[in-house]
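Journal club prep, shared notes

We agreed each person brings one worked example of a sequence with its structure written out as tokens. Mine is Flagellar assembly T-like protein. I'm keeping it raw so we can talk through how to read the token line rather than staring at a rendered picture. Sequence first:
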Amino acid sequence: MKHIATALLHVALFTLLLLPGRAVALAIEATGQAPHTAEDPGLGRQQALQRAMAQASSQAASWLSSTRQARDGILEIDTLRLRSLGKVSNVRIIDEQISRGQISVTIIADVDIAQGCKDSHPETAYRKSLAVTHFPLEQPQEANNGYLHEIQQGLATLLAYELRQSSTFDALDAGSLNIIGNPGTAPVRMLPEGTLTTLLHSSEQHQVQYLVSGVIRSLAPHQAIGPRDPNILVDLYRQADVVDRYHKRDFVLDLFIHDALTGTLQHQQRYHMNADWNADAHAKVGFGTPAFWQQPFGQELRSVIRAISNDIQLQLTCEPFTARITRTRNKEVWISAGSIDGLKPGDRLSVYRRLTHYDSQMRPEYELVNTEHSLTITRTQPNLASGTLDVDSETLNIQQDDIVIAH
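Then the structure, token by token:
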């Protein structure tokens, strides 16, 4: 039984991040235990599963209670109340073991969250779009150990899949798109105008509201690796190292979220973990391979990716839905969002002018000005919609690339 469970775990590690979900939720890993008897093995398994689900809910509550969010420079603590936690759903068993009369079941489950905003409820939410871009290495040579250079693009792929577990987020895998000019000086408060112009074109095509990027600051092993003369005693000692000094490896990531409409840095956060890396220093393991996920380092990284996804959802779920104006004619306005984004006839969206200012260094700064008028949606198609204003668009000087916002 244990060998079968171990094999299933390895398969789950390869496919875990690709599983679809159904709601805005935190993905939590938890373990439950119960007595196991040969007379009624199903009862123990069910009890262990139920306890794992209860543990997942408890861990989500603990995780949320320690979450901190900054808005307008003011630190808000516990913006999500523990009583707002919803049900546990989309339960996936990733390990099951029996030992000494006890059965242990490990699961990953979605714990639905209900924040005080419309977009926290899938049945009423507008779907937000974001592009997960390239994660450059600040020290590329550190990826030589294990041949992990593909992490720069592969991390975006895995994070985009994890984010798509939420039905209210459309995460585009844009791992081939590098928006970080110099990893050593990232992040920038605002993306450069030329970069933003290119990205806005991509954002229009994919209806992206946010750009997720970051820099992998470290993949360094705790023990420096380099050429040396063979030493059998040293090699045996390192293989039997009981304090793990020679096996530990760091993963340090700085995550950035930019607003795709203005290029403004909206959020940044650092993630740091270390775990065992037991592969030979010269083995061509590769990022995302079965051999990589079997490493303790790979398994811990899976949890970090899930934590990043959770944090992004908490940051963006209650942010207003926005869409670009693509065309105007008299009182009629077309926007770059449609029925697949949750829009329907009768919805009312506030209309904003997007103005560009330049500072003394000729760096652009963007301002959104509320026109105090709204657009009422009259027709929708999957990727676009149109509606009417209460005044002529020329009166308000509404143009292409102005925006609408659902508050």
